[in-house]
Amino acid sequence: MDKIPMTAAGHSALEAELKHRASTERPRIIAAISEARSHGDLSENAEYHAAKEQQSLNEGRIAELESMIARAEVIDLSKLQGDTITFGATVTVVDEDTDEEKVYQIVGEAESDVKQGRVSIGSPIARALVGKKVGDTVEVATPGGGKSYEVLSVRFA
């Protein structure tokens, strides 16, 4: 089994979601199934089928969360330092075409959220940035075509 790198915050978020799904959602769905079952004929009972589908999705996500947590390799960002981009680095880049600055933190797959500036270690931008230093230029293949970025700063929070 491959280890999944993640930050302590990402690990905590997964554990919180697992706890919520197991202790809150699971009993709510079981109650909904019981309620729908009491309505009679299950073959034409849309509430029952919807509740069973919810149960299936919830149990699938619980299994996925348990697997990710079991394989997690939590990386302590406070112990990271240096000027080379690695997992956990917060990187400021400038788009060489538009002069637009962007800030990305390189995190694990499970905790990535581009809208919040957290990109997965497996994403094209992160793969291009890893190993680079301030002043380096990186080329990234994106769905909209190639992009060129210059690394302005690297920090570990």
Automatic annotation (TrEMBL):
<dbReference type="InterPro" id="IPR006359">
    <property type="entry name" value="Tscrpt_elong_fac_GreA"/>
</dbReference>
<dbReference type="InterPro" id="IPR028624">
    <property type="entry name" value="Tscrpt_elong_fac_GreA/B"/>
</dbReference>
<keyword id="KW-0804">Transcription</keyword>
<protein>
    <recommendedName>
        <fullName>Transcription elongation factor GreA</fullName>
    </recommendedName>
</protein>
<feature type="domain" description="Transcription elongation factor GreA/GreB N-terminal">
    <location>
        <begin position="4"/>
        <end position="74"/>
    </location>
</feature>
<dbReference type="InterPro" id="IPR036805">
    <property type="entry name" value="Tscrpt_elong_fac_GreA/B_N_sf"/>
</dbReference>
<dbReference type="GO" id="GO:0032784">
    <property type="term" value="P:regulation of DNA-templated transcription elongation"/>
</dbReference>
<dbReference type="InterPro" id="IPR001437">
    <property type="entry name" value="Tscrpt_elong_fac_GreA/B_C"/>
</dbReference>
<dbReference type="GO" id="GO:0070063">
    <property type="term" value="F:RNA polymerase binding"/>
</dbReference>
<comment type="function">
    <text>Necessary for efficient RNA polymerase transcription elongation past template-encoded arresting sites. The arresting sites in DNA have the property of trapping a certain fraction of elongating RNA polymerases that pass through, resulting in locked ternary complexes. Cleavage of the nascent transcript by cleavage factors such as GreA or GreB allows the resumption of elongation from the new 3'terminus. GreA releases sequences of 2 to 3 nucleotides.</text>
</comment>
<dbReference type="InterPro" id="IPR022691">
    <property type="entry name" value="Tscrpt_elong_fac_GreA/B_N"/>
</dbReference>
<keyword id="KW-0251">Elongation factor</keyword>
<dbReference type="Pfam" id="PF01272">
    <property type="entry name" value="GreA_GreB"/>
</dbReference>
<dbReference type="GO" id="GO:0003746">
    <property type="term" value="F:translation elongation factor activity"/>
</dbReference>
<feature type="domain" description="Transcription elongation factor GreA/GreB C-terminal">
    <location>
        <begin position="81"/>
        <end position="155"/>
    </location>
</feature>
<dbReference type="InterPro" id="IPR018151">
    <property type="entry name" value="TF_GreA/GreB_CS"/>
</dbReference>
<keyword id="KW-0648">Protein biosynthesis</keyword>
<dbReference type="GO" id="GO:0003677">
    <property type="term" value="F:DNA binding"/>
</dbReference>
<dbReference type="Pfam" id="PF03449">
    <property type="entry name" value="GreA_GreB_N"/>
</dbReference>
<dbReference type="GO" id="GO:0006354">
    <property type="term" value="P:DNA-templated transcription elongation"/>
</dbReference>
<dbReference type="InterPro" id="IPR023459">
    <property type="entry name" value="Tscrpt_elong_fac_GreA/B_fam"/>
</dbReference>
<dbReference type="InterPro" id="IPR036953">
    <property type="entry name" value="GreA/GreB_C_sf"/>
</dbReference>
<keyword id="KW-0805">Transcription regulation</keyword>
<comment type="similarity">
    <text>Belongs to the GreA/GreB family.</text>
</comment>
<keyword id="KW-0238">DNA-binding</keyword>
